[in-house]
Amino acid sequence: MTQKTIFKKIIDREIPAEIEYEDELCLAFKDIHPQAPVHLVVIPKKEIPMVDDITEEDEATIGHLFVVMRTIARQLGLTGGYRVVVNNGPDAGQEVMHVHYHMLAGRKFGWPPG
Ligand code: AMP
User: Residue 98: beta bridge partners?
Assistant: First the structure.
């Protein structure tokens, strides 16, 4: 049996997280090493290792994550905007092999990203 990722352990409540939003399809919680005043990790409950593994049957779930991020942004009053980042694979710096969106806000972000 393969080891559970840290995010699967959060879904299964085996390790704690500061959960901001949850529904049947997804979970959003505070990043443990925040890179901005607001830094949430938004994940599907379905275990998909990386963007490269997303299939057509995941379209509704992945689309739902964006609707959830919009809802969270309204709840948190992120009127100045926010950045959504997805790291896919080693060159992008993906560390946790469970698809996730970083939702960052509360400061200005540079472009191009590092
Ligand atoms: P990535 O490099 O895109 O795979 O991002 C993984 C993110 O997960 C990093 O920003 C970590 O700080 C974050 N992270 C790792 N473990 C935890 C945890 N237990 N609770 C919340 N965030 C975590």
Answer: none
